[in-house]
Amino acid sequence: GAVVSQHPSRVICKSGTSVKIECRSLDFQATTMFWYRQFPKQSLMLMATSNEGSKATYEQGVEKDKFLINHASLTLSTLTVTSAHPEDSSFYICSAREPGQGSTDTQYFGPGTRLTVL
Amino acid sequence: GENVEQHPSTLSVQEGDSAVIKCTYSDSASNYFPWYKQELGKRPQLIIDIRSNVGEKKDQRIAVTLNKTAKHFSLHITETQPEDSAVYFCAASTPGSSYKLIFGSGTRLLVRP
Predict the structure, then answer these.
(1) CA B92, CA B3: separation in Å to the nearest integer?
(2) Residue A42 needs a FRET pair 20 to 30 A away by CA distance; which of A66, A111, B21, B86 works?
């Protein structure tokens, strides 16, 4: 299957700072990437859909000015958590949709980034 | 929008027994239903998926069934092994939604040796 990488795998930052997380599709071009947040022992909550060359679509309740998403190329999407606070501490996971014949919904996930805000 | 409910939240079975996890969805237009397995601290891994034009799909010990009328789908794992222990998530995708997945709440499966 397709390979998606994510960097960094772990990050610890001070409250008020910004953190950038990168998501890359390594062996395919992903026109659409997704960003999820997962709190301990909970499900994956979709934050936003990232489309190459256009603005991201945010889910209800997700602050677009706090979670900045950029999808500048077909293999890279970035999520920047601005002015991070302890309540932003979570496991952030990206996924990428592999294009295929017709409509293909298969998503492959990155390994995740564990963010801890002190 | 789509809403996916998953049951049970935890499931403990003896090695060799079968495990069944059930999900229901709300949007009758949803047409793609994947199942992911997630081990602690790791990424979700796609284990099987089914599309709305099929009622059942099987891959070795894993099978998924779909009932479009009732809007529910189930994951069946036969001859369970300790390495099947993980959290399993169902999801649903609706056409025209940029292929986004809406996940169920997850089922923690424990296979006792």
Answers:
(1) 8
(2) A66
